[in-house]
Amino acid sequence: MSFNTFGRVFRFTTWGESHGPALGAVIDGCPPGLALSEDDIQPFLDKRRPGTSRFTTQRREPDRVKILSGVFDGKTTGTPISLMIENVDQRSKDYSEVAKAYRPGHADYAYDAKYGFRDYRGGGRSSARETAARVAAGAVARLAIPEVSIRAWVEEIGGDTIDPAKFDAAEIDNNPFFCPDADAAARWERLVDDARKAGSSLGAVIACEATGVPAGWGAPIYAKLDSELASACMSINAVKGVEIGDGFEAARLSGEANADPMRPGNHGPQFLANHAGGIAGGISTGQPVRVRVAFKPTSSILTPVETVTREGEAAEIATKGRHDPCVGIRGAPVVEAMMALVLADQKLLHRAQCGG
Amino acid sequence: MSFNTFGRVFRFTTWGESHGPALGAVIDGCPPGLALSEDDIQPFLDKRRPGTSRFTTQRREPDRVKILSGVFDGKTTGTPISLMIENVDQRSKDYSEVAKAYRPGHADYAYDAKYGFRDYRGGGRSSARETAARVAAGAVARLAIPEVSIRAWVEEIGGDTIDPAKFDAAEIDNNPFFCPDADAAARWERLVDDARKAGSSLGAVIACEATGVPAGWGAPIYAKLDSELASACMSINAVKGVEIGDGFEAARLSGEANADPMRPGNHGPQFLANHAGGIAGGISTGQPVRVRVAFKPTSSILTPVETVTREGEAAEIATKGRHDPCVGIRGAPVVEAMMALVLADQKLLHRAQCGG
Amino acid sequence: MSFNTFGRVFRFTTWGESHGPALGAVIDGCPPGLALSEDDIQPFLDKRRPGTSRFTTQRREPDRVKILSGVFDGKTTGTPISLMIENVDQRSKDYSEVAKAYRPGHADYAYDAKYGFRDYRGGGRSSARETAARVAAGAVARLAIPEVSIRAWVEEIGGDTIDPAKFDAAEIDNNPFFCPDADAAARWERLVDDARKAGSSLGAVIACEATGVPAGWGAPIYAKLDSELASACMSINAVKGVEIGDGFEAARLSGEANADPMRPGNHGPQFLANHAGGIAGGISTGQPVRVRVAFKPTSSILTPVETVTREGEAAEIATKGRHDPCVGIRGAPVVEAMMALVLADQKLLHRAQCGG
Amino acid sequence: MSFNTFGRVFRFTTWGESHGPALGAVIDGCPPGLALSEDDIQPFLDKRRPGTSRFTTQRREPDRVKILSGVFDGKTTGTPISLMIENVDQRSKDYSEVAKAYRPGHADYAYDAKYGFRDYRGGGRSSARETAARVAAGAVARLAIPEVSIRAWVEEIGGDTIDPAKFDAAEIDNNPFFCPDADAAARWERLVDDARKAGSSLGAVIACEATGVPAGWGAPIYAKLDSELASACMSINAVKGVEIGDGFEAARLSGEANADPMRPGNHGPQFLANHAGGIAGGISTGQPVRVRVAFKPTSSILTPVETVTREGEAAEIATKGRHDPCVGIRGAPVVEAMMALVLADQKLLHRAQCGG
């Protein structure tokens, strides 16, 4: 598998940098005959698009997607689907400070250590702009799994969590935080605003659920559904943790409390709980597939931080440019995309080995 | 990548079932010229071996490894290294109940849903016995990364955590729990004993640290070091969560509190903190690489749980056989092995693209 | 893909050396539910087995296969199938000469140049004994493509070709040369005997045909059916050329002469010719899939040949040990196996992307 | 590995159709720090470009390449290099006949059988226009192997072969046939012209040689250098045969005649012959690496050929559009590109496993 490719049969490769002319994705292995136009992709990009509220970076990118191949007569042909998004608002800026000193928490030092030099304009390849390409690819993946519905939301910002009792899926699109709890959304507005004004930043936890996944998807041992989801989510910029089902909480439960008992149901067993997050032995059980993802606070802050220059001298650096005060918020559509991409791949893998 | 293969250049494939004649691993891509004998592998298998204390399953397996290929004159030749471990104590047992009804929390139902039937003897391929093959492969991987030291320990059992102030690496091998805190080890003895006697089970959290990893390992975007570690760890039986560095805790910190400032050091920058767990932008920074892994309580408990039969009828099932009351304990050497396997692979990948 | 793994969904990994304790293959991705026992594999190994006539090496290997995993209740489970063949007749021999000087035409020098040293006993990993593992894996692949019949034969030895007019499939198993032309078989008996007695060696051309392959298998662009067959066949020891359909002869035909016209048929088009060898655009057309493979004469000859020692000094070397005077003969079952393995993989790949 | 991706570490993915807006390649795993601009790529595209003489298709494509990512400050960054070539001369044409009936020898029927429908404009994805993307990627690969020189030429057109005694490398670029024999070039002018005027077509054989390849590249068993070359070349449109070194001719030689004896040399052994084409045991020996590739005559001919319609009815079809009378000619730069791509990948693979 390539470094910049994900998936085994339904695969996508992304390319592009923050300040290059464009970025994109090539999807390979997509089933033929799926109705696909740019209008199927754009709404998902619009969700992730920066500059839509004061709570995200003020970079203005229309993020218009173009389909360059793989579609004929409005349908996927089974050949590679090339998607391109042109960068528009690569604001002319003085990058001399970033070029010279490493921003702590960013990939600056690591890229230099690995490659010997780096594209320092907006973080180059390490920028979260790369996730636009994932979201575009994810929109295509959704078409390959029409039986599945996927929904992500923000569960926690800066340590302030939603109240599960107030969960209302209809609220998720009613606020700029993908927050299912209207009260929490109100609190977060202040919280994020304060961080933004202070030039500080906040972390977040995203939850994502896929319903309609039939039992049987997942390829033990090293392509388990949960293993693939963990890889997919951990590859997102700023992510530091991934949980399936109850995750770390499960480690605190007794075997009795963590059980997901079954009863006879109409279509396979009816489960009485879902601590497992819809996955057992790396294979879907037919229950909702659930993942939780921790985003660290973005490392771009106004407070100067000690650092070193490329030449190894002491320095201080503060980030004045455009950035998200809470990068996790825009992580929600990205986690959704990764869920879709993993599930599409696993559906095809299952069909390859087991038919049907 | 195959379902049962992990890695990109330094790769291993495992095979075998709980109650088959043997299990094993084939390692491909190992550098030539490394001194390797069975004695380099056996100590790691002995750590994971069942039946060494009353806190693990009473299945008695010597877990003797045989090297069947890839070594000549005591050195690796660069060709595939085939490792085999014969199963010895596949106790003759009546599996009719397990064959008939699904054990909740186990892979039974999922395997049936996927493959149409399953090897129900001891869980077949879904048994944690598969991890013996990983540990054997991991021992070989260590030889490919002599610059790195890897150490895992148990940080929490059944919600009872170690006291970081009492952390003593020398204690880890002094108790049957890989516990670095002698007081916690004493408490856990009672805790696990109680669970065992009650036929209950407990979860655990494992921490693992790799020191000596140079800056520059990790292949963005979809073979990031953290993404690979997440995939590797989540593929271990019973794992439900993975964290890099501060993990979910990082989501609760401000950007200022989460920063890892740098100062000039003797060999590259000196970091003043390691919230990131030694990885930035998916690439190692030269700091210790840190991962935490949550193991759920084993689903095998004495208390009967509601379930369904293969024919879809209501039933109850309790697990009377041999099993670990806390499967996470023996997870420690497995997490170590996965860390070694990921790092060996990333070292080779880095060398491929960037030389040196 | 690993160095020692072939295939994308139906994959196999081989391991083992000529004079190690055993060799084997691990098959991953095999569909579940196929009836499989060692008796399904052994007949194919027996065809390739050395020592069955005076026209092959006199090494006596029973080549008994053992299934170590992946089968339960006589059926494949969908988990890795581990196959092992123990080496029995690793005749104790003085290898000092081979250890010291490079045999021209063998892999000796190349392995040393690559790995720094080599297992010189019988060629180590570069020995054609590795193909036993392929034949075993190929026997399993056949079970996954019951709609297909595969047959290979020897078409040419030492430049003496069969007469197409005398082609009789029933003859193929009636002589030690897999020769479909009884007259040619009689001639080859003298030819190969003469070469054997003179300590010389001969090349051969193998043809292989698969019937029953439905239209639609093959994954353009870089996993085309013909591209995969070329890779599979060229990886066999001593192979120097691969042709699909008319191969090099097609380059001499006009477009008119090379056409494969179609007429309406009962099940899809009826083709009036098969210059293409059953493949167009990398995809099967429903016609028989045809490949031809050129084997060079084995490099082991009694006549001393100029060479150099490991230390770079001039030397002469002659091969006195056991070897095949015409290694191409035993290539027939190996080419069959590779055809089966490629087709099984392509069947599954097609099912993954296109369903059905 | 994806269907449309080639390579293991130095990998490229191509996308695009004959009549889509553009086509391109994404290169992943390229070493960082290589000087790269569009000017390094364009000359190779110009060699393959259609419309440069009356012996190739009259489609007029400037084939201007754009680098969209992976380069900063004139150097490769180690991140994906996205190359795009816009289609310009997708002449408006009536495709109703091609849409309705299958052109024998083309991929039309096979694509329909596989995918259920097809992009019939100029052959869609099955068009040889895809090879422009390979040539662009190959130009980048050359930069990764500066120690290697690669040269391809046409050795045979329509059965008329060059005279080896008249081989003059300097002639190759002096005629529109990449022909190293001036006399043959003169003959071919008439030959190809006659075919073109008659609406007929001719096959060709391309030879390609890489010098400067050090001993040790190649990854046995299933990523052997020859196996990779075979796969790479057989994936080119219209290719039906691949030979390494003496190829099929080697099958007619005795072991003595086929030997490549060695003598002490200044840098490793000096070989006295190169029947093997520079590869032994799948690994380069330090001699020139030689491959020969057979191209069938293009299936587009003016003479009507029997065929069937999509509905299965009898029809006749003749190709009136623009096409190459001998598609093999423009195959020369494509074979060079594939040689470069395989060698770059093998260099990196060797470095991964064996260092240096």
What this model shows, in words?
- 4 copies of one chain form a homotetramer.
- By secondary structure, chain A is α+β, with helices and mostly antiparallel strands.
- Chain A is built from 8 helices and 18 strands.
- Chain A has helices at residues 38-48, 96-100, 108-115, 130-144, 182-198, 225-234, 255-258, 331-354, and strands at residues 5-6, 11-16, 22-28, 65-67, 71-72, 75-76, 81-86, 149-157, 160-161, 204-211, 239-244, 262-263, 270-271, 279-280, 283-284, 289-295, 305-308, 314-317.
- In chain A, the strands form 6 sheets. A 5-stranded antiparallel beta sheet of chain A has the order 1-2-3-7-4, covered by helices on one side. Chain A has a 5-stranded antiparallel beta sheet with strand order 9-8-10-16-11. In chain A, strands 5-6 form a two-stranded antiparallel ribbon.
- In chain A, strand 2 and strand 3 (22-28) form a beta hairpin.
- Chain A is globular, with a radius of gyration of 21 Å.
- Chain A starts with a strand and ends with a helix.
- The mean pLDDT of chain A is 95.
- Chains in contact: A-B, A-C, A-D, B-C, B-D, C-D.
- At the A-B interface, strand 1, helix 3, helix 6, strand 11 and helix 7 of A face strand 1, helix 3, helix 6, strand 11 and helix 7 of B.
- Strand 11 of chain C pairs antiparallel with strand 11 (239-244) of chain D.
- Chains A, B, C, D: Keywords: Amino-acid biosynthesis, Aromatic amino acid biosynthesis, FAD, Flavoprotein, FMN, Lyase, NADP.
- Chains A, B, C, D: It catalyses: 5-O-(1-carboxyvinyl)-3-phosphoshikimate = chorismate + phosphate.
- Chains A, B, C, D: InterPro entries: Chorismate_synth (IPR000453), Chorismate_synth_AroC_sf (IPR035904), Chorismate_synthase_CS (IPR020541).
- Chains A, B, C, D: FMN binds at residues 125-127, 237-238, 281, 296-300, 322.
- Chains A, B, C, D: It comes from Stakelama marina.
